[in-house]
Design a protein that fits this description.
Helices cover 25% and strands 25% of the residues. With 279 residues, it is of the alpha+beta class.
Amino acid sequence: MKEGVILLLIVLLCSCIQQEPKIEYQCRDGSIVMDPSECPSTTTTTTTTSTTTTLPCQWTDKTCRIYCSQECGPRPLEFCRVNETTCRCEFRCGTTTTTTTTTTTTTTLRKWLTEQEIDEAIDWGEQNKFNLSNLLSKYAYPNYSAGYEHVIVYTPYLNLALEAASRAREYRTLNRSEISEIITDREIMFRVKLYGDSKGFADDIRAVIKVGGKVIHPIRSRFDDSPETTAYWPDSPAYFAVNTYVFEDYEEIKDRVIKFVVIKYTGEDVYRIDMSNYK
């Protein structure tokens, strides 16, 4: 009996020694298993969340228009707006058109003669086409006599008569344009008949006009380089010449009393001329 109990204890002891300990595993879902392979399969799903941040459009109507104007520069701006969908400033420039503005200042030329005076001067010239001395003598100061120095005043009236006489000798007449050019000419010419004893005596003779305390010099002077002999040649005065002096503004002396001064080496000859006596 005692042996049987001992044998039973030995068997039980051996049995305890040979049995392996149990190891439990806890799966991800919380279940308990003896082997990790027995855990239920787990699928990990990764969800990516995209966050879209919508910023307000930076273009305004004002900034867009400024930008459009800068881009077009001198060209006209035909179209400019903010596209709300794309947030873009859209524009279109036109074609530059250059317009040149010309300001014309028209100076009305003064006509020195009336229509009646024009007709009179032309008739007078045509009637004296072969007698120019008759025309010139009326505008000579102090007189037109041979042997005397004198000044001839070439006013627009005399110039028109002389030109009409020249045309009449050729059986021609003046047209309106030619008449207008003569009667609006602002220059005034004086021709001086001079006497001397050498062929070059007139080369250095000058002339000025004195009026109202002012001295007016000619804008052009022409000295006679071909003096002619007088009836007194070879005695004095042996030669005569005609010098020409042109002054700028007829209006400055028109209808005024002037002093026409002829300047020589030996002195001055002063001619006091009342311009109102000459049309």
